[in-house]
Description:
By secondary structure, this protein is of the alpha/beta class. Helices cover 39% and strands 7% of the residues. It has helices spanning 8-16, 39-51, 84-100, 121-142, 177-182, 190-199, 225-242, and strands spanning 21-25, 58-59, 106-110, 169-173. The two termini are 15 Å apart.
Amino acid sequence: MKLEYLFPKDLEKAKAERWPLVIPVGTIEYHGPHCSFGCDTLVAYGLLERLEKEKNIIIAPPIWYSPSSYAVAGPEKGTIHVESDVFEQYIYNILKSLLYGGWRNIYILIHHQYEQENLLPMTLSCMKAAKKLTFEYLEDTRGKGWWGDNSNKEFYEQLDVQDNPWNWITVLPCMSKEVQDATGYDHAGKWECSILSALYPETVVKEYIKESNEWFIQDAVESSVEIGEKMVSLCLEDLKNKIK
């Protein structure tokens, strides 16, 4: 179910039953002449649309603008970059409304600069916003010194139960390290174009590759929907185990 289509009774039911609420986060970034600007966000969103068919989840509207960086290309080629501290505050405010609104099973799903699950600016911004908010919420609702109070002496023994506050908000990659190792990971090349082609075929046009000699796109000629479907399958199996 998509959050923007819900009615209040649907929302309350999802919160009460702890359905996962998943926010796809990506970029508007140059991916060569053959690949759409929304590639990263579309991969995250497309995987969630597939996952929605297999388990009960709520898909939040995507976040398109983020710390893309100008590592691949500058703004003259269409990349839109948001400074990480500004982005962190934006994420913080979105999560604050959700957490104070009663959501306790929130996921942020990222497909950008997550090679081998390295913690780069976008991911760090989301993680910092989530942990900062969780601590603020606990102090606001349980009072300062809540952890040190004797009423919480069994806190660590209870971390495996459903209401573990460190599990209220989780940041995940679309492609875990294990999935990347099983397939491959690149920027607008064979692997990324394959998974994007499987999810949204109209967003990759391989004949445009010849318009550029950029090194990182040349093996995109080897991309295919068939490869992409295998990647999607691996991603979904991984995400089904992690989005609970």
